[in-house]
Specification:
The chain has 109 residues and is α+β, with helices and mostly antiparallel strands. It has one domain (13-108). 18% of the residues lie in helices and 29% in strands. It is built from 3 helices and 8 strands; from the N terminus they run ββαββββαββα. The longest helix has 10 residues, at 64-73. The structure holds zinc ion. Residues 37, 84, 86, 88, 91, 93, 96 line the site of zinc ion (ZN).
Amino acid sequence: MAQIRKKQYKTIVTIGEWAYKPELLWEKVVKGQPDECWTWLGSKSTAANLFGAKKNGVKQMTQANRLIYADTTGEDPGAFEIYHSCNNRFCTNPAHFLTRPNRFKRDTE
Ligand SMILES: [Zn+2]
């Protein structure tokens, strides 16, 4: 008898003010070569990849790349904005991520 079961993601990681499921996050990333841009299979806005997570206990959609950054480095990007050395805002390769304080955003774009 075939068993049909909804996939369960048990692991929840908390970094800074965020709680998220890393298995679910990485399932949406198509990892390419280390120097390539990696594709996001999840939701997107016109400006960013989106992923559902809890911020201070409240579920919301957030920028997936912030959680990829957090999951890769173990640090909450907090007040920092993540941008890309490849200029591809939908790229999910952490090797292409750069951070800068949010306040510089308007000065440089
Ligand atoms: Zn890239």
